[in-house]
Amino acid sequence: MLSVIIITKNEERNIRRCLESIRFAGEIIVVDSGSSDTTVAIAQEFTSKIFTMTDWQGYGVQKQRALEKATGNWVLNLDADESLSEALQQDIQKAIETNKADAYRIPIQMFFYGKPLRYSSSPQRHIRLFKRAGVRYRDVIVHENIELPATFRIAQLQHGIEHLSFRDVSHALTKINQYSSYSAKIRIEKNQSSSFLKSIAAGLWMFFRCYLLQRGFLDGQAGFLMACFNAQGSFYKGIKQVYRDN
């Protein structure tokens, strides 16, 4: 059986689209962080397994809590602003049936103002589908990553998860500010160094990577904006280490 785990907070704009795309799953687990909108009410239309946990300790902890609620042999990790195409649904079901691997990397297909970005999407393939036994999420504030048993066979799926990361420019700036603060905190705790010049260099490198190396320029104006957003995130992550919050 496939269990899908989702963590939420005030995701009424996205959650229905997400849940509609995973109706084929045997179990849907939603861990909500105290939504004040209709997120929970919408989720109740799709699953009874909704848990409210408001003592937010980071994405890694919250994902682990959701994972611990799952009972399926296989688990798919989704964010509320993500969904599966029909092609990816079929890929996932086939992967589970054939059992040729224990975990699968899935590319992330970014959308901006409702349009897919062909070149500005995530260059990495994240492990999102995996067998549940022996797996856990690391205790990190942001960019949660997963610990797999050493014996796991890892493969990758062809079609990507559709990710509506930024609804609009204002939403993008809000998320950049939030995520850069989380990342800066992690680097401070690890005693990683930064400086004004390093922050500038990191921002410039990120823009170069996203816009030129990943060919984001082929996504037109949206590709330029995404490169700028990613560059800002890298710059602010470093500069928030230098100029720390009081």
Q: Biggest sheet: strands, sense, closure? A: 10 strands, mixed
| CATH-defined architecture of the largest domain | Alpha-Beta Complex
Mean pLDDT: 92
Total helix count? Answer: 7
By DSSP, the count of extended strands is 12
Runs in which pLDDT lies below 50 for 5 or more consecutive residues are: none
Secondary-structure-derived class: alpha/beta
Q: Span between N and C termini?
A: 49 Å
Give the total of domains: 2
- Supply the CATH superfamily name of the largest domain: Spore Coat Polysaccharide Biosynthesis Protein SpsA, Chain A
- Within the CATH hierarchy, at the fold level, what is the topology of the largest domain? Spore Coat Polysaccharide Biosynthesis Protein SpsA, Chain A
Q: H/E order of the elements?
A: EHEHEHEEHEEEEEEEHHH
User: What amount of the residues lies in strands?
Assistant: 15-25%
Which term fits the overall shape? globular
CATH class (first level) name of the largest domain: Alpha Beta
What helical percentage do the residues reach?
25-40%
